[in-house]
Amino acid sequence: MPTINTGDTAWVLMSAALVMLMTPGLALFYGGLVRRKNVLSTIMHSFFILGLVSVTWVLWGYTLAFGPDTGMGLIGGLEWLGLEGITGAPSDVYATTVPHLAFMAFQMMFAIITPALITGAFAERKRFKAFVLFAVAWSTLVYAPIAHWVWSPDGWLFGLGVLDFAGGTVVHLSSGVAALVAALFIGRRSGLLHPATEPHDVPMTVLGAGLLWFGWFGFNAGSALGANGVAATAFVTTNTAAAMGAITWVTLSWLHRGTPSVLGAALGAVAGLVAITPAAGFVTPAAAIIIGLGVGVVCYGAAQLRLRARVDDALDVFAVHGVGGAFGALATGIFATTAVNAAGLDGLLAGNAAQLLTQLFAVGVVALYSAVVTAGILFIINLAVPIRVAAPAEEAGLDMAQHGEIAYQP
Amino acid sequence: MAIAALICFAILLIAWMVAPDASATGEASPVFEAELAPAA
């Protein structure tokens, strides 16, 4: 009989609030990276999703992702439409020591930030109306099914033994791949003086990265779904990987460009946070150092490749979240150990090489599904509402052309 | 109650679909024009 534990409940509710703060943090992180004529439109993407997905999650998102399975482990049923029957009593299945509504709220914050991550790819050129339709469709058709596959006890990837502590595949890989597809679909920005992004406010981006780092303690340590030792482990591994990612990226930029990049510190921290997400409650702090180093190198390389590629993933969503998410999922298959979390599984280094193959399979499936369905959504929406703004609007900046407002007075 | 809530959201969704989008035709929004007019 599930019984509410007040300590667990307090931690999960607090963690939900921490994760909520990540989306405004992401708005600042992305907002600082774009040109000053597009800062409001970029911030609006994240902030509007905070409202939009909060509502769709209550209406149908939660039941599709976590509702009783409809068969084959692909999607939840509609029994919990509009949160029907979800109360302050604990669930029999999820987080059985906290109110079911608390677990639902915690998961809601994940559902909110995931489509917001994608917005960095089409920043500075996406029509707002098309963005709204995309966010609703993507969170319903991509996020909810993948969350069900991986996190529902009836999900088919869960049944295969895939380890994803807080969303390396569900959140970061799915959004990162979707970002790459969106960037390919919408095309390159016009009027860039340099193929790299032109950040108009690096302090804004660093502030956003700080808020993301802070909120990530809720994201990862909160995913223990209790105030316990696994939460403490996830807290420490999260901070350690973020720190290692930051100092690794700075070191690489220092060696490569001759200067230790401030922006690189922010990007590296986020890359470290992304990579430790699937592993946080399954690995040791020492492993988190190796994961942070590895993802710093891999994502720095991916970002450099992006500069040379024709695809204009404006804010490096694929390089950081797609590549970092895949790297973290695979690293989980290498470093996971039941010595850290008895409820988990051993990875390669603990003698279970098959876990790495399972993780590799999950990465492939999630990436493929996200890519195909995202492309379909973009294609269909583009038939009804052109996804890209007209050239004069893009030239003038989306703040004025789409929102009729400007961020800074001349 | 869930159906009533869904209808509330559907009303907003319809509103977003019919809401004006000046840049769809490449034209600027009224505010955009007002801001640019002095400069022009």
Write the layout of secondary structure elements.
The complex is a heterodimer of chains A (410) and B (40).
Chain A: H1 6-33, H2 39-66, H3 100-118, H4 128-151, H5 156-160, H6 168-186, H7 202-221, H8 229-257, H9 262-276, H10 285-308, H11 317-335, H12 353-384, H13 391-396, H14 398-403
Chain B: H1 2-18, H2 30-39
Low-confidence stretches of chain B: 36-40
CA(first)-CA(last) distance of chain B: 54 Å
The whole-angstrom Rg of chain A is: 20 Å
What would you call the shape of chain B? rod-shaped
Question: In total, how many beta strands of chain B?
Answer: 0
The tally of structural domains of chain A comes to 1
Structural notes for this entry:
The complex is a heterodimer of chains A (410) and B (40). Chain A is globular, with a radius of gyration of 20 Å. Chain A has helices at residues 6-33, 39-66, 100-118, 128-151, 156-160, 168-186, 202-221, 229-257, 262-276, 285-308, 317-335, 353-384, 391-396, 398-403. By secondary structure, chain A is mostly helical. The longest helix of chain A has 32 residues, at 353-384. Chain A has a single domain (6-403), classed as Ammonium transporter AmtB like domains (Ammonium transporter fold, Orthogonal Bundle), CATH 1.10.3430. Chain A contains 14 helices and no strands. The model of chain B is unreliable at 36-40 (pLDDT under 50). Classes of the chains: A mainly alpha (410), B mainly alpha (40). Chains A and B meet through helix 2, helix 4, helix 13 and helix 14 of A and helix 1 and helix 2 of B.
